């Protein structure tokens, strides 16, 4: 089963309860599906209230049966939501049942991954092995890098941008308007002035605007966030041009670049024609999410930086018998095990195969959407398909689409099959026909969002037919 674990004590109890259910009782436990979306309706919040276990044995047994039923229904809800998951960049195609034995341990990788702590129940050897793999991917030798496994891509951004702030306390942060919200959160948290850079219609940073804004602040160092795949459009900022712009504007040796590669940072190295993200270029840090393209049952990520940079954050902590150089104190020791297992199971060839399939399926989705008359576009080297925002929020909720303004997107991950894409397109086309059946009610124009050549609204579609 996708994302499954072998049964623990709680799951054994739940399974025993499920076995007692008669066919006629299943609907009562699992509940009804929403008539509009077909989504399984969750129990109301009060049903999940935490209650003291009854003292009476018979009442306690009844309560355990109720809990088992709620968990069964919750499990079914998660299964249903997984089947209708398209808008967010999470790879749900994994099976870590072999690792279920480690759930019995409180695995905490507190402190520096490279320094042994007094706490002995950790997974540091596996964490360091994962970090070594990523350092090699981005061309840093073992004696040149430092990094750790984070809770998510946001923590990687917070760490990378904090390094930039500490190295250049009087620096100004620059980030495109399409950057992830965590970048602007970092600026607020660290009290750093942040200048937003305009973007091209693709979502890529507009280097002409970047140059203009740099020249307005030549007296302050630059802390630059570079997107290796923007959140909404999957656009890749031009790292080489950004570096050249900094140098041309007189910022040589006065800039720090953090590369936010949450999703595409793990994809780009496996695409021959993709721009190279490497520490052979003057970048300071790179972060990726572990639960996105690789797939993981818990949010996690990786951040890699140059070893000399991390010294500005490091503090020796006697209580830990280690060094504090991370954002968090206690760190999830299970996540490194998941990532280590996945890298060993897939290897370079397996990841490359996943990347190729996702890019191929993303192009297929654009073709199918346009085939049924829906405006759609796809950036080169991206698996994020943009299209006109569905009119009804019930449809958005059903397929868990991410929306912004007039557009929505589907992120085609390794777990998304051609069959699922076909089902989605057919469902969207059928619903859309009803949304716009009334005279004068027409789909929105999304030319300003995805380009007039990709817009199939009444005006642009007519012009395309005439040309």
What form results from the Cα inertia axes?
globular
Q: Quick one: CATH class of one domain?
A: Alpha Beta
Tell me the helix content. Answer: 40-55%
CATH topology of one domain: Aspartate Aminotransferase, domain 2
Overall pLDDT score: 90
Give the name of the CATH architecture of one domain.
3-Layer(aba) Sandwich
Segments where pLDDT lies below 50 for 5+ residues? 1-30, 463-467
Structural class: alpha/beta
Largest sheet: 7 strands, mixed
In terms of DSSP E residues, the strand content is 5-15%
Reading the helices and strands in chain order gives HHHHEHEHEHEHEEHEHEEHEEHEEHHH
Looking at the chains present, what oligomeric state does this protein adopt? single chain
CATH homologous superfamily classification of one domain: Type I PLP-dependent aspartate aminotransferase-like (Major domain)
Query: Can you count the beta strands?
Result: 13
Distance between the termini: 51 Å
Radius of gyration: 25 Å
Number of helices: 15
Looking across the biggest beta sheet, what order are the strands in?
1-7-6-5-4-2-3
GO biological process, one term: carboxylic acid metabolic process
InterPro entries: Group_II_Decarboxylase, PyrdxlP-dep_de-COase, PyrdxlP-dep_Trfase, PyrdxlP-dep_Trfase_major, PyrdxlP-dep_Trfase_small, Pyridoxal-P_BS
Cofactor: pyridoxal 5'-phosphate
Keywords: Decarboxylase, Lyase, Pyridoxal phosphate
């Amino acid at each position: 089963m996708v994302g499954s674990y072998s049964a623990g004590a709680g799951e054994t109890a739940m399974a025993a309860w499920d076995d007692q259910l008669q066919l006629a009782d299943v609907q009562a436990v699992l509940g009804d599906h929403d008539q509009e979306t077909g989504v399984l309706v969750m129990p109301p919040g009060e049903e999940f209230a935490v209650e003291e276990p009854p003292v009476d044995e018979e009442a306690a047994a009844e309560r355990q049966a109720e809990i088992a039923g709620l968990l069964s229904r919750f499990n079914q809800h998660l299964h249903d939501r997984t089947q209708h998951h398209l808008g967010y960049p999470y790879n749900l195609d994994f099976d870590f049942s072999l690792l279920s034995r480690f759930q019995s341990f409180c695995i905490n990788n507190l402190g520096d991954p490279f320094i042994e702590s007094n706490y002995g129940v950790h997974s540091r050897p596996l964490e360091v092995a994962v970090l070594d793999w990523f350092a090699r991917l981005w061309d840093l030798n073992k004696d040149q890098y430092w990094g750790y496994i984070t809770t998510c891509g946001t923590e990687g951004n917070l760490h990378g941008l904090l390094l930039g702030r500490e190295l250049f306390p009087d620096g100004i942060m620059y980030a495109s308007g399409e950057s992830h919200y965590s970048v602007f959160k970092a600026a607020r948290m660290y009290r750093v002035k942040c200048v937003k850079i305009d973007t091209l219609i693709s979502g890529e940073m507009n280097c002409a605007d970047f140059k203009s804004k740099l020249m307005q602040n030549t007296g302050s160092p630059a802390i630059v966030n570079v997107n290796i795949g923007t959140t909404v459009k999957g656009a890749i900022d031009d790292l080489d041009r950004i570096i050249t712009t900094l140098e041309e504007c007189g910022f040589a040796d006065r800039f720090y670049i953090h590369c936010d590669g949450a999703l595409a940072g793990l994809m780009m190295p496996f695409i021959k024609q993709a721009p190279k993200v490497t520490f052979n270029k003057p970048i300071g840090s790179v972060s990726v999410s572990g639960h996105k393209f690789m797939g993981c049952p818990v949010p996690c990520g990786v951040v890699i930086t140059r070893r000399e940079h991390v010294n500005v954050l490091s503090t020796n902590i006697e209580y830990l018998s280690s060094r504090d150089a991370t954002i968090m104190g206690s760190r999830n020791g299970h996540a490194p095990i998941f990532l280590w297992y996945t890298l060993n199971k897939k290897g370079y060839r397996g990841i490359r195969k996943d990347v190729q399939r996702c890019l191929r399926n993303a192009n297929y989705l654009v073709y199918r959407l346009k085939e049924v008359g829906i405006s759609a576009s796809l950036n080169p080297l991206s698996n994020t398909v943009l299209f006109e925002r569905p009119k009804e929020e019930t449809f958005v909720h059903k397929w868990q689409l991410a929306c912004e303004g007039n557009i929505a997107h589907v992120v085609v991950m390794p777990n998304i099959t051609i069959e699922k894409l076909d089902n989605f397109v057919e469902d969207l086309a059928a619903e859309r026909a009803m949304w716009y059946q009334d005279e004068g009610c027409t789909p929105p124009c999304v030319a300003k969002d995805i380009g007039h050549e990709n817009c199939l609204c009444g005006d642009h579609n007519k012009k395309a037919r005439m040309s």
